[in-house]
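Usage

Read records sequentially. Each one opens with the input sequence:
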Amino acid sequence: MKKTRITYYVTTGIISAMMLFIGFETLLKPEVKTSMHHLGFPDYFRIELGIAKFIGAIFIWLPSRLLKEAAYIGFAIMFASASIAHYAVKDPASKVLVGFIFLAILITSYMSYNRLQNLK
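and closes with the structure output:
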């Protein structure tokens, strides 16, 4: 149980810290605006995405199972969509793989969360 708890806190911490950091970048860095345009997304989507990252980073820590799972689902869609978008515009494989790597971390967080719930 201790290993599962550590895995949950480490992976969830990585995801939420990354979402907070990238949320700020998404809203404030001009390079992200250029990147989103390169991927074919309108600027208002960049703003919505940045705000959604902040909301998800909070929801993933809340005790409400509904809000927590909404964050997991939203992040899973976000990571998969990012990889697909980079693949669609023929970006380098490194950019395509990043979304899948974070998706794997997210899945590990979700699985360890469920294991902890089942142990209670």
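Summary fields computed downstream for this record:
- The mean pLDDT is 96.
- The radius of gyration is 15 Å.
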